[in-house]
Amino acid sequence: MATFITDLFTSIFTPGPTHSLLVATNASFAALQLVFLVLLILTYSIHFVILSALCGGLWWSINWFAAELETAKRIEKEKEKKKEGEKRAEQSDTDERSTREKSPEDSGAETEGGDDDRVPAEQIRRVNTATLQPEDAEGEMRKRRSLGSSTGDISTDSEWDKVEQQSDT
Length: 169
Description:
Number of strands: 0
Strand content: under 5%
Distance between the termini: 95 Å
Number of helices: 5
Structural class: mainly alpha
Mean pLDDT: 79
Helix content: 55-70%
């Protein structure tokens, strides 16, 4: 019993549902259901039936969630094992290719898809900088066009001034 309590205390700080935590949760919900049953028999109140149904739904959902977490953890471990297997296979393929490249029958001549298809980095930089700057801007600043009136005054105070001037006339 002492080890269970120790395990329960340490499981609080362990991420995910642990066995001792699930056992304690299920025992607590079972005791609560028993209390609701006793209170229902003693008082004949419908409230304890409703509380028991809510408690049962919560109990089921907690166990369902713990099972889903375990399923997700198992699937993640399977994916990691598969990924490790693919990585090992890829590494062995790479090792095999490197031994083939070092073989004496390799003439060193380029084969299909060589460097002829590549564009020099300088040309790419020239194209990018040319498209980012407007053609007419040779180091000079252009004034942005105004969307509002010609004065650029868009505040509501000036609108109220206009209304007051119209009402005065």
